């Protein structure tokens, strides 16, 4: 989901994605490139993203990843599911606090 979110903003190469995760999350989400590439390859196999080569600074060619319409649709589904789970967790946490308050009132 996070890879698709970053790619929904702009095309990126692998190392760039890891740096965005680290910077935007204030260092709480650190993904090493070797563990990220298998996920990118699976997203490509599913037709959610594509890749293309482009020269970066200097002579080095980089592989950039691009989200496709199917990837945007999948991101929407994943985001909706995540928000539903997040609401459920918050409800349970609030319920736990409410039970503690009831016990203390006895």
UniProtKB/TrEMBL annotation:
Annotated InterPro entries: Metal_resp_DNA-bind_regulator, Tscrpt_reg_PadR_N, WH-like_DNA-bd_sf, WH_DNA-bd_sf
Pfam families: PadR
Signal peptide: none
Residue ranges of every copy of the Transcription regulator PadR N-terminal domain listed in the record: 3-77
Gene3D superfamilies: Winged helix-like DNA-binding domain superfamily/Winged helix DNA-binding domain (1.10.10.10)
PANTHER family: PADR-FAMILY TRANSCRIPTIONAL REGULATOR, TRANSCRIPTIONAL REGULATOR RV3488
Name of the protein this chain belongs to: Helix-turn-helix transcriptional regulator
Taxonomic placement: Bacteria, Bacillati, Bacillota, Clostridia, Lachnospirales
